[in-house]
Amino acid sequence: MEISTESLLENEFGFVFRADASYEMGTGHVMRILSYAEELAERGYSTTFVGDVEQSHWLVEKIALIRNLKWVKSENSYRPDTERNVLMFDSYLFSPDDPFLELEKWIAVVAIVDDNTPDYLATHYLHPGPIGKWKKPAAAVDARIFSGLEYIPIRKNLRAVFESRKVENKVPKILIVGGGTDPFEFSNSLVRLISSSAAEFEAIVFEGKRLVDSDDERFHITQIGDQFDKNLKSANFVFTTAGTSAWELIALRIPCAVALAVENQRPNYEFIRSQKLAFAVGERVESKWKFNEGEIFQILEHLSNLPMLEALGLNYPDLDGVTRFVSDLISEIEGSKFK
Predict the structure, then answer these.
(1) Is the predicted pLDDT of residue 213 greater than 50, yes or no?
(2) pLDDT tens digits, residue range 17-54?
(3) 257 CB neighbour count, 10 Å cutoff
(4) Of 49, 183, 199, 325, whose CA is between 20 and 30 Å from 89?
(5) Which residue(s) pair with 17 in the sheet?
């Protein structure tokens, strides 16, 4: 999708992005928000990220790398311009009564939502991915809804992974990642399980809050960050949870298996499984991982000649979800609907 880098609104508007990250809540909210911030910054708009991410050093580094993106660490330190600023936010924890989110303070307010999102008032709702049980709040009568796989945010830098991906490993390489902080110890639990497999593989394991413990020489432990994207270029297979990273892998056509870590991932997990977009290999039940061990060991035994799942082609997300949404949003604001 070709996009002009020149601001369509000639810098008449600025965009503010609000989200937080921590060990407990993970990094998904911030990663989604930053996809839109990066796109709008590249188009020449004023962009400001407001949020606390200091428990995640690699997120701090990522924010610093986005050109022209300002970072304000607390909403108490930012005063919106009611005639110029558009707010986009992503959270389960903000209070719907948070003064920062009041519609009167912004020319437009975009809430990124799913089944577990509180009833925030907004002028626009973005529901990327399969629709579950979420419904627009009754009070948001005139709000515009953007929903579906066509709006799934895929990080811009992953296009280079897609274009340069080449798998020529003598020993099959797998990646294991449980999200930005892996708060539910997916990586640890899977490593313990597959250590008992006799299959030949090299596993790059991205650890979260707790260190992955393994003396098995097949496993190489590292931190999440740019190493994940670099290893995607040559990985035979990836094990992950059914969040944002799962959609990225599917869009990149990288064979993968997903597990259900938390209930808000269920619409993703069930849709991915029903459409055969990836292998579904278990879920976390009452704080314990229940893996489909037979399926996982079959995958490990056939890594070198693992067939791609015969997915329904129309159900693959493409790489343009971010640019598509940004263009649609700008078009509406440019039309003065929310001026």
Answers:
(1) yes
(2) 999 998 888 888 999 999 999 999 999 999 999 999 98
(3) 24
(4) 183
(5) 49, 88
The H or E element that residue 259 is part of is: strand 256-260
pLDDT of residue 5: 34
Tell the burial category of 36 from Cβ atoms under 10 Å away from its Cβ (0-12, 13-18, 19+). buried
Predicted local distance difference test score (pLDDT) of residue 26: 84
What is the CATH architecture assignment of 14-154+319-334? Answer: 3-Layer(aba) Sandwich (3.40)
Helix axis angle, 28-42 to 244-251, nearest 10°? 50
- Taking the C-alpha atoms of residue 275 and residue 267, their distance in angstroms, rounded to an integer, is 12
The Cα angle at residue 285 between residues 116 and 266, in degrees rounded to 5: 35
Residue 22: which of 257, 175, 208 has the closest Cα?
A: 208
pTM of the model: 0.89
Of 74, 69, 5, whose CA–CA distance to 34 is shortest?
69
164 residue type, one letter:
S
Q: Are 258 and 279 in contact (CB under 8 A)?
A: yes
CA distance 25 to 4: 35
Which amino acid is it at 48?
T
- Using alpha carbons, select from 322, 193, 302, 168 the residue that is nearest to residue 247: 322
Q: What are phi and psi of 2, to 5 degrees?
A: -80, 130
pLDDT, residue 23, reads: 82
For CA atoms 144, 148, 149, 154, the dihedral sign is positive
- The structural domains of the chain, with segments of one domain joined by +, span 14-154+319-334, 158-315
CATH number among 3.40.50.300, 3.90.79.10, 3.40.50.2000, 1.10.8.60, domain 158-315: 3.40.50.2000
Among 125, 82, 131, CA closest to 107: 82
pLDDT digits (tens, 9 = 90+) for 152-206: 999 988 989 999 999 999 999 999 999 888 889 999 999 999 999 999 999 999 9
What pLDDT does residue 309 have? 54
Beta strand pairing call for 288-291 and 279-285:
antiparallel
> Tokens in use for 90?
């992503």
